[in-house]
Amino acid sequence: MDLLFLGTSSGAPTRARNVSGLGLLEDSGKGWYLIDCGEATQHQLLRTPLTLHGLRAIFITHVHGDHCYGLPGLLASAGMAGRQEPLDIIAPTAIEGWVRATLEMSQSWLPYELNFHPTESLKEWHSRLLRVEATRLSHRVPSWAYTFTETRPDPRLNVEKLDHDGVPRGPLWGELMRGHNVEHAGRFLRSEDYLLFTRSPQRIVIGGDNDCPELLRDACQNAQLLVHEATYTQAVADAGKANFGHSTAATVAAFAESIQMPNLVLMHFSARYQSAPNRGQSIEDIRAEAGQHYSGQLILAEDLMRLRLNKTGQVERVERHVRYDARASKTNQPDG
Amino acid sequence: MDLLFLGTSSGAPTRARNVSGLGLLEDSGKGWYLIDCGEATQHQLLRTPLTLHGLRAIFITHVHGDHCYGLPGLLASAGMAGRQEPLDIIAPTAIEGWVRATLEMSQSWLPYELNFHPTESLKEWHSRLLRVEATRLSHRVPSWAYTFTETRPDPRLNVEKLDHDGVPRGPLWGELMRGHNVEHAGRFLRSEDYLLFTRSPQRIVIGGDNDCPELLRDACQNAQLLVHEATYTQAVADAGKANFGHSTAATVAAFAESIQMPNLVLMHFSARYQSAPNRGQSIEDIRAEAGQHYSGQLILAEDLMRLRLNKTGQVERVERHVRYDARASKTNQPDG
User: Fold this and answer.
1) To the nearest whole angstrom, how far is the Cα of A233 from the nearest Cα of chain B?
2) Which residues take part in binding Zn(2+) 1 (chains A, B) (predicted)?
């Protein structure tokens, strides 16, 4: 699984960082998932290889504008680009009414269905390759983390059982291997009964805004990667300069250390932390503070940074894939 | 008055052009007005000298998303940047309910007042330097043009009248000159009664989406500049490849020629027209077609292009003003 960061600023965009948006790419490279959709997330996509046709589902962590104001525009653009496949949106209940009211207000009619799943009552959500669960966090408004777990980690056929059950070699085996259930000689054969998985599943936990990382202890079991906000340093929070509801670099790092999380990616930085020092502060303050509490692999996310969680549980940086062709030239969209 | 184009694409953003947004700057250089606010208009502002503190009013031409989806984020960011001055928004009625519902859904509370003025019933709107009127256009939804007229074109004092009325020289004259009404010796003196204007007022007409430029004939009287959409060429429209509701380069240009409009700026281009030719089409097709029908000064708008209407009615290009300092460093905003 790859992560492609579309926005890593908290509250408002800066010239270097957009508001929240994060792409999670399937191993296959075809489909992807969007976690949060701040304003101009669709604009960021134009600078990546991701397309609105490949989008399989959207997950929203909470209702604050910097995490969802980009939804109506992105959905409308997907329609203009000719998307017809239904789209699942997993989001707090209030989001559905607002998205539908927004599309109606602007008289935008989508050529595809929106299927909303309220996060409040989510048991789990599945695609062919992934299982997603939600964990309630602590913030000024209800906020959730989403845990993405691989469901088919490098399967191989259970040849012994296939032979034992008298399933003949050939195309049937291929179907079962690809995860499809089949009928044969009056029998119903379930793919999962004939597959063996050869390694632990990959698991990534992606938090929404949250002032209590400890709430993620269970969700983080068997995860190789935690992606979490670190809006401020502890020094700024202690000086009373920070709003309630957010984590500091220190608290997230100490939590990750306490559970021996091997990889930690921080994001959602206050605009006071820029690359170049400003009023004595810079993004390096976040890195330094987290580094004091955490001994695993620490990464500070940047817009358009792409990370790969490989099959041995390591996280590595992937070169940026910039699409130099204009998105528009690929579509034949009507105009608004 | 200067115009600073923030978005010149129709429907959806491309890598080169954002969706609609246009800044109109007062001669004084301090205040500015925003016409339309597509998604990521606030992001475009980060690349200009314009600030959310200097914004005097917002005018929305119609409810389509590419003209208004950027409003909630821009208003929220103005709040985070500490704006306290009330803000006038002149927009179709449906916009007010949607903006207020959006802010409530996302639990965003602005530290300043929003004053909505429905375009449907607008007589005129005034600032100290400008008068704005709306003209109904023809589109798939109700759409308007806004006409901006200077109210104080280079005033000088009517000394003869001041002397005749016995108004003593001194600070009183200064007040009247600056446009303030004053009381003196029990008399109420209106500034405008003692001023002479030394040239014709500047007037700019800015159209929303519209398939009938002819509707702007009256509004364009005594205007030096018309800014209008030209979504397609006539060839594309005739081939049935274009949606209803828009103008072609040919129809706008022919209209501008028929009223002897001295300056015409086209914008809101279909994404099929890129700088580099693509499938045999480019933005030069728009220029060529308009040029066949119009003999005045023709300009095709680009994102971040800045134009100045000078006092003799000429339009000239102004060098780009890029703010290299990060916007965020100027504010001390809370985080979302």
Assistant:
1) 13
2) 62, 64, 139, 209
